[in-house]
Amino acid sequence: MVSLLFPLTAKSFYYSRFFSFIILPFNNKYITIYTKKEKLFNWFHILLSAFQIINTTLFIYFIWHVYMPQTLVKNPFIFPLLLAGVFLFLTIKTIAQLFNGFIFNSYKTFNELIFKKLTYLNYSGIVLFIANVILTYVAIDSKIVMAIAIIGFLIINIIGWVTVLRNYQNFISSYFFYFILYLCTLEIAPLIILGSFLK
């Protein structure tokens, strides 16, 4: 519940922007207004990223608790380790993506692309927050809730990817080979590594 402080702070200081963000899956207004207007690193984005990181970590912790309870007994510091891992994973991935922008002399385009993807990722943090509340107070250790949350998380991020692909068709077609390389190294490979680690 502590993670709620981040979106509440964002709402207090960025009221109209917050409500544009809340309707993101149903209305593209937020992406249209703020993609070019704002930098990737701004306080609103940072606050919602913190909210998303905490809830992603907590959700992974719940999955860990259900499928590998013995490790929690052996290592009581699992949650802070997971939190550090998720934070480093997203930070390194974002830096690597921005570095690609410098390599291809397309920093502005990559900055917009990353902003859109992270916006949808941050929105999916709301789904994980709801799931975490249910898993804590209503349906403890429910695998059905976990499955529904994962599906919701994936759907929101797929919408984000479709939006990115649709908006940057010309750019992607110009660098198609490098886009496939980017997809494999910075999108698919990290997920495989993370999956292997959790296994």
Describe the structure in your own words.
By secondary structure, this protein is mainly alpha-helical. It is built from ten helices and no strands. The radius of gyration is 17 Å and the shape is globular.
Summarize the structure.
Helix content is 85%, strand content 0%. It contains ten helices and no strands.
Keywords:
199 residues; mainly alpha; 10 helices; 85% helix
Tell me the helix content: over 70%
Indicate the radius of gyration in whole angstroms.
Answer: 17 Å
Low-pLDDT segments, ≥5 res? none
The pLDDT mean sits at: 80
- Report the order of strands and helices: HHHHHHHHHH
Query: What structural class results from the helix and strand content?
Result: mainly alpha
Q: Largest sheet at a glance?
A: none
